[in-house]
């Protein structure tokens, strides 16, 4: 049996965890059902978050487990599965949007090229939505620094370009700069919810971004776990 960290609610009971099956979701959108049980332990991990034991599951590579069968996962295509033409176009569009994110005039990253480290796309409400992380590095031998930019962008149709809907940016050393990772996208209310992790060596922030309308995203919930 595998294990996971229960980060919502903050203090789940054994009865709640066992009350319904978990839907285990992989980042691409596949899912499988499994039962779970709260792990009885004197030492909790990651900022006092309790552990759960996953039972009777065939799911591999899952990133998020949601209690109950009602949550519907959204299929996402990774940039690695796209044709060379489509992936090249997507990289160029994401780099263009990342260059529009405001920065200080004396930023050490100014003028440096962006590299796309990850990108996924899906559809909602008749629009294509793209989420991506881009990286820029200043390779000082003594103290290399990195800039990570997370972007949510939307496209109205196949003939229009991507437009910025939401962005986050972090910079620092390899240890202190946040790494952004999309864990899953699920159908919510009124639209979709994007489950995001923001990780560095000191802590991980789990965040739910909610799409409330075309081009409109907001942070619905977050929790910081120090590990």
Any key phrases for this structure?
48% strand, 5-stranded antiparallel β-sheet, 14 strands, 227 residues, 2 helices, globular, mainly beta
Q: Can you describe this structure?
A:
It is built from two helices and 14 strands; from the N terminus they run βαβββββαββββββββ. The protein has helices at 14-17, 84-98; strands spanning 3-5, 22-25, 31-38, 51-55, 64-67, 77-78, 115-124, 127-138, 145-155, 163-172, 179-187, 192-199, 203-213, 216-226. The strands form three sheets. Strands 1-4-3-2-5 form a five-stranded antiparallel beta sheet, with no helix packed on it. The longest helix is centred in the middle third of the chain and has 15 residues, at 84-98. The two termini are 23 Å apart. The model has no long low-confidence stretch (mean pLDDT 89).
Point out poorly predicted stretches: none
Shape: globular
Characterize the largest beta sheet: strand count, sense, and whether it forms a barrel.
5 strands, antiparallel
Number of strands: 14
Give the strand content: over 45%
- The level of helicity is under 10%
Helix and strand content put the structural class at mainly beta
Q: Report the mean per-residue pLDDT as an integer.
A: 89
Strand order of the largest sheet: 1-4-3-2-5
N-to-C span: 23 Å
- Secondary-structure element sequence? EHEEEEEHEEEEEEEE
The tally of helices reads 2
What radius of gyration results from the CA coordinates?
A: 19 Å
């Amino acid at each position: 049996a595998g294990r996971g960290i229960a980060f919502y609610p903050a203090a789940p009971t054994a009865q709640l965890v066992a009350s319904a099956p978990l839907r285990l979701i992989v980042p691409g959108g596949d899912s499988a059902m499994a039962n779970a049980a709260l792990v009885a332990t004197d030492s909790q991990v990651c900022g006092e978050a309790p552990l759960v034991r996953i039972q009777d599951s065939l799911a591999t590579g899952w990133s998020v487990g949601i209690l109950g069968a009602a949550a519907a996962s959204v299929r996402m295509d990774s940039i690695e599965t796209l044709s060379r033409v489509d992936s090249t176009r997507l990289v160029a569009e994401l780099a263009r949007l990342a260059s529009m994110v405001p920065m200080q005039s004396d930023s050490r990253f100014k003028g440096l090229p962006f590299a796309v480290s990850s990108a996924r796309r899906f559809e909602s409400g008749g629009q294509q939505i793209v989420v991506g992380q881009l990286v820029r590095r200043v390779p000082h031998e003594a103290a290399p620094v990195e800039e990570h930019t997370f972007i949510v962008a939307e496209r109205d149709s196949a003939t229009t370009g991507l437009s910025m809907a939401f962005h986050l940016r972090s910079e620092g050393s390899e240890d202190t700069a946040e790494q952004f990772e999309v864990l899953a996208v699920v159908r919510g209310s009124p639209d979709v919810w994007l489950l995001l992790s923001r990780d560095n060596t000191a802590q991980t922030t789990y965040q739910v971004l909610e799409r409330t309308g075309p081009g409109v995203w907001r942070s619905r919930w977050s929790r910081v776990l120090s590990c």
